[in-house]
Amino acid sequence: MTFQELGLCDALLRSTETLGFQQPTPVQEAAIPYMLHEERDLVALAQTGTGKTAAFGLPMLQYIASLPDDNQFITRALVLSPTRELCVQIAKDLRNYAQYMPQIRIVAVYGGEDIRKQLMQLDRTPQIIVATPGRLIDLLRRGKVSLDNIRYLVLDEADEMLDMGFQEDIETILQRTPDDRRTMLFSATMPADIAKIAGQYMHNAHEIQIGERNAGTENVEHIYYVCRAQERYLVLKRIVDLNPDIYAIVFCRTKAETQEIAEKLIKDGYSADALHGDLTQAARDGVMQRFRLHGVQILVATDVAARGLDVHNLTHVINYQLPDDPEVYTHRSGRTGRANQKGISVSIVHQRETRRIANLEKMLRRNFHREQIPSGIDVCKKQLFHYIARVQNADLTLMDENNILDGGLQEVVRMLDYLSKEEIIKRFVSLEFNRFLEYYQDAPDLNIPETKHERTRTNERGKAERGGRGKTVRLKINVGKSDNMTPKRFLGLVNDTTHDRTIAIGNIEIAKNYTFFDVYLDQKQKLIAAFRQWDDLQVQEVKGRRASDNDVSYKKDDKPRSKNKRENRDAPKERSSKGNWEKRSNVSSDKPWRSRR
Ligand code: ADP
Ligand code: MG
């Protein structure tokens, strides 16, 4: 589908071409012809980055441009949006779309800026006003804006406006506009309050939904790191250090935290800045501008401040703190992975928060991958190769073309003559690299083991991924309670014996002299073979029983050596939770089983 096929006029076809829009996005394809050719209202559910501004902006401009010239100084269209930044962005986008429609004027009005300037701009009544609800109400009270002739009304990011407490203002505004207006409501999500507004103030609205509701963008990969709560900042630094070309927004929960993290990063030598509501408008503008122009690599921000901002090519969105509301997570992660580029949404969580990751997975219907926090060595290696790549790609033309050095370079070459190539490289690398080595040479491992809950999750997923493998057998090994065996030690023993983490172990039950466990049929031989290295450990299949039998009928095999029944009863079996398949990362046996008596 082309923009032409959607029925856009020449001026808009030209501007979309100038802007490099090759074809309409799905929400544009659905909304534009509808708005051009039908008379009803529209509710569109679409995530950030799907091109909503043009979806409502292009048909709106086409309508206004089609009106006779003598109607010029009448406000025909109103766009409500939650934040100042968004208003500015939308007005800018609309002006771009209208660049070949010189008669159209667009004014943005929003709180936080001297109202006099905005009043002056409103003196020559614009056809389009883009406003935050609060400031618009203010202007309405002063009689500086008339909504009597509004034909197009857009509620952009409606869910966010409600979250910010604008419900009453929105209703007031809606009541001040004519009944025969056409209303377009855009939202990433559809909470009950929005449905209510739509039902009450919109007529017979046509609903379109782009993409899966509540789902993160397709090309966003969701990963998380688990650390101690007090080590969040260290983990953040490692993530940043592991990605030298990072261009990211780091989301914090409070303004204070936003400020604190940004200051720490700056102090530690990173290219970072803070964006939150406590800054003056001028400061916010400056920060945004620098970030947009890549003058800053890491923007630490609150949700409200960063909402709706159109920044291209973010490599990462980092959740320094998980948001309370899963929908906020969706909004955040929607900031990366835009326009068919791959993005990564990273969450730094502490152990108890892994449950919330599970909830997010359910809500978004996406898998989140737990990654190991990179070690100091990982980071240093990555930085080294990044540096070397820069050396390889260094632009030599200036050096080659300029004779300023006038043989100076030859002299330098002579000066370094006594050094081998390796030594020269080492020296150059050291200059750049020592600060990383210094910082990371004794860096601790920040990882913490998986929680039981998480392990279950991983295992369940593992099971699902293994799919058809299904069939299991029950094995026993001749060590048990009397050897101080525990499930954890047993897994450690398996690790030390097989060195193969892909071998899954399930349903461990520890009896006095034996430990029983399940393995997948196709891993049985590997495991038994590995255990042959121990002289005094024997692994055998428990015959005649289905591995999934959770009853303890194998007791017979576990013949008590002692006749003393009491002793046997006093040694309770230790068992892991039913049906669990243990993932054995980081578990190692702490007992030399070989020297068992
Ligand atoms: P949303 O409001 O849904 O978050 P925007 O309207 O801000 O999305 O658009 C996101 C980005 O995509 C903007 O940079 C915009 O210029 C760009 N864009 C919009 N429509 C197209 C298109 N048809 N082709 C290419 N880029 C587009
Ligand atoms: Mg938008």
How would you describe this protein?
The chain has 23 helices and 20 strands. The chain is of the alpha/beta class and about 600 residues long. The strands form 3 sheets. It has a 7-stranded parallel sheet, with helices on both faces. Strands 10-11-9-12-13-8-14 form a 7-stranded parallel sheet, sandwiched between helices. Helix 2 packs parallel to helix 3 (about 50-65) and helix 3 crosses helix 4. The longest helix has 20 residues, at about 420-440. The chain starts with 9 loop residues before the first helix and ends in a 15-residue tail after the last strand. Mean pLDDT is about 85; it is low at about 210-215, about 465-470, about 545-580 and about 590-595. Adenosine-5'-diphosphate binds near residues 21, 48 and 54. Magnesium ion binds near residues 52, 156 and 308.
**Rg over CA atoms:** 32 Å
- Cofactors and ligands present? adenosine-5'-diphosphate, magnesium ion
The protein's oligomeric status is single chain
- Count of helices? 23
**Strand order in the largest sheet:** 3-4-2-5-6-1-7
Main sheet overview: 7 strands, parallel
- Overall pLDDT confidence: 83
Q: What general form does the structure show? A: globular
Low-confidence stretches: 212-216, 464-468, 546-580, 590-597
* Coarse structural class: alpha/beta
Helix share, percent? 40-55%
Termini separation comes to 78 Å
Strand-residue fraction?
5-15%
The total strand number stands at 20
